Amino acid sequence: MDSLNLKIIARIKSDFPEKFGIPRQSGLAPALHSVIRFEPEFRNADALRGLEGFSHLWLLWIFSENMRETWKPTVRPPRLGGNTRLGVFATRSSFRPNPIAMSCVKIEEIRLEGNDGPEIVVSGADLMDGTPIVDIKPYLPYADSVPNAAGGFAESRRYDNLQVEIAPEILGHIPGDKRDALIQVLEQDPRPHYHDDPERIYGIAFAGMNVKFKVAGKVLTVTGIDK
Predict the structure, then answer these.
(1) Is 200 helix (H, G, I), strand (E, B) or coil?
(2) Which of 10, 13, 55, 195 suits a disulfide with 38, CB 3.0-4.6 Å?
(3) Do the bridges between strand 163-165 and strand 219-226 make them parallel or antiparallel, or are there none, so unpaired?
(4) CA distances (Å), 31 to each of 94, 96, 100, 117, 196, in order?
(5) C-alpha torsion angle, residues 200, 206, 210, 212 (rounded to 10)
(6) Which of 170, 51, 183 is nearest to 118 (CA)?
(7) At a CB cut-off of 8 Å and minimum separation 6, what does 193 contact?
């Protein structure tokens, strides 16, 4: 077997219409809520029977914005400043021979009824709105959690969260149910790791807003909200 055709079983509904600002790994912003909406062929409640007993899921999905005909054996991980090349299979880069990704998310609610049902509400997802999902598997703590596992270069280059400052007059423009999620996203420092211009204004498209911010040292300041 040299090739395999995969079916898109679902797509995610998230607050990110663009790639910029999405957490670099799942689970880093647990206040982020998203909805898994199945394609018509797979809208069958029987396919979720027994899922209520699990707390987390593995999502297998497609880097739909980074699909290419060719691939390279090495990539430049952003965590290393974009200057060091490592083997593609030693990273989670989106530029891969097959554009497949995986994320661990928490189940918040399983909705079996409704026009689009069944649906699964999850938290901590790192997927752009509309991202195609090709499989869903339950997370098994006894097998999927490995104590004392080595994290390679990702462990050696950890970054502290930023302090997020939002003036009260700006905070009032952010819906209450989106504030915690937005702050968690901003704490992760959405900028490329090699950017360090305290005067530069960045913008994240999030939950129908354009959130503008700048970073000086370890402090991220939201400068405005456009809707």
Answers:
(1) coil
(2) 10
(3) parallel
(4) 24, 29, 25, 23, 27
(5) -30
(6) 51
(7) 78, 79, 80, 81, 82, 159
